Description:
Chain A is an all-beta fold and about 110 residues long. Chain A has strands at about 5, 10-15, 20-25, 30-35, 45-50, 55-60, 60-65, 70-75, 85-90, 100, 105-110.
Amino acid sequence: GEDVEQSLFLSVREGDSSVINCTYTDSSSTYLYWYKQEPGAGLQLLTYIFSNMDMKQDQRLTVLLNKKDKHLSLRIADTQTGDSAIYFCAESTPGGSYIPTFGRGTSLIVHP
Amino acid sequence: DGGITQSPKYLFRKEGQNVTLSCEQNLNHDAMYWYRQDPGQGLRLIYYSQIVNDFQKGDIAEGYSVSREKKESFPLTVTSAQKNPTAFYLCASMRGQTNTGELFFGEGSRLTVL
């Protein structure tokens, strides 16, 4: 089965908050990431969180980590049409040479 | 500006032909990676290289080959043995002494087999 799972689609109205969820199976995961991919482009790192943290906030982005449930979420406040993209959850460990395992990606569609 | 350059952006090939995708980086990163992306499937690792003249197979290496003769370059050849090569290919790099494991990606190359 997949090591990292996330739902495939999320649709929100402009100005609302978006919450994208992710679960992972590797209890030794040290780093958890959110990458953003705009249409026809490569991925860009949005934010990351260490496994010894519960929360990280960066402007409109809030990452929550529940290590017990192996659940990661990304909240985007005041979602804009420019936030429409695919969001990938990923995890890695230093023991695995940091090579991340990616989820399938969540397509966020923001309606005006 | 530093970054990763992939070329060509779009490529068409006939069945039975080999094709090589270029990936060049000027970030002075030690490690480089090739991923394949199919709709709804996320990213799957094809090959990676952590040092010049050395590379390892990823999860889906069959039908692909790579070389790493220079630190800056990590070309991927899609051979005729790859049964379903139509996909979006992404090259990435990572700093050697990383403490975050951040990957830096190129803009991708879309290969279509006719």
